[in-house]
Design a protein that fits this description.
Elements lengths: L3 H19 L3 E5 L4 E9 L3 E6 L7 E5 L3 E5 L5 E3 L15 E6 L7 E10 L4 E10 L22 E13 L7 E16 L14 E19 L2 E14 L6 E15 L1
Antiparallel strand pairs: 1-2, 1-5, 2-3, 3-4, 5-6, 7-8, 7-14, 8-9, 9-10, 10-11, 11-12, 12-13, 13-14
Length: 261
């Protein structure tokens, strides 16, 4: 008959054997509470490489640090795996943006644009489309083009489109700054020597034009799907009509409301 003492002795021997096996190799403790008996552990920036203690072929196995809590080594030392936290500057902001250019209404233009964010939030490619709905000049709070004697938009755009390249140095976030070049091509009416205070102005000239601009903007996103931006631009414009054939400085200001999706 097996006595209680013999049962306790057998249990003690089994415990010692298991303990001896556990402490004769490294142990990887997973987040799932499972353990891996391992040898030849190599710690890499994002992963752990090891060989299974019971595998006689010594095949290397790689697992992500994200599923590991702790590693105990057979010399009694241990390390806790610190998982990389996502940067506060990174976000899951939507990469598609539709913008309504509110300030363009001041110069009688209805302007919408579509922008696609790429390169991990560092670059935006934007396509604007604008339709003018007025044939007369508009007084502005800015000199356009610069050097004019009157606060008047001499080039009244009837239509333009083009491409903007927006660079976001800090990526996407609640507050962000961008800058980048833009090329706009369109058609409109040019008012030469226009004077706001005169009733004897020359007739406008139909012309195609191109603008090369440098945009600078600040964007605030109170929520991930909605943004408000203020954009300033400076550059040059050229009128292609042979009666004008003129290049001059230009600029602009835009206040935009954007929906991200």
């Amino acid at each position: 008959m097996i006595t209680l003492n013999r049962i306790l002795l057998l249990f003690s021997i089994l415990t010692l054997l298991v303990s001896s096996k556990l402490f004769s190799q490294d142990v990887i403790y997973l987040s799932s509470k499972d353990i891996i008996l391992a040898n030849n552990i190599i710690i890499k920036p994002d992963s752990i490489v090891y060989t299974d203690f019971n595998d006689t072929t010594n095949t290397a196995i790689t697992i992500s640090k994200s599923i590991i809590n702790t590693i105990s080594f057979n010399d009694g030392s241990a390390i806790k795996i610190v998982k990389n936290k996502p940067s506060k500057k990174s976000s899951n902001f939507p990469v598609n943006i539709i913008s309504f250019h509110l300030f363009d209404l001041v110069i009688s233009n209805l302007t919408l644009s579509y922008e696609r964010i790429i390169s991990e939030g560092k670059v935006g490619i934007q396509i604007p489309i604008s339709i003018g709905y007025k044939d007369a000049t508009t007084s502005l709070p800015l000199l356009l083009p610069y050097g004019s004697e009157e606060y008047t938009n001499k080039l009244v755009s009837k239509f333009y489109s083009g491409i903007n390249f927006n660079l976001y140095p800090t990526g996407q976030g609640k507050f962000k700054y961008f800058l980048g070049p833009a090329l706009h091509i369109g058609s409109g009416l040019y008012f030469p020597n226009y004077n706001n205070y005169s009733s004897d102005n020359e007739d406008p000239i139909n012309t195609n034009y191109a603008k090369l601009l440098l945009n600078n903007g600040i964007i605030y996103s109170p929520v991930e799907t909605l943004s408000i931006s203020v954009v300033g631009a400076i550059g040059i414009q050229h009128m292609f009509n042979t009666n004008i054939n003129k290049t001059e400085t230009t600029g602009g200001l835009s206040i935009n409301l954007s929906l991200r999706f």
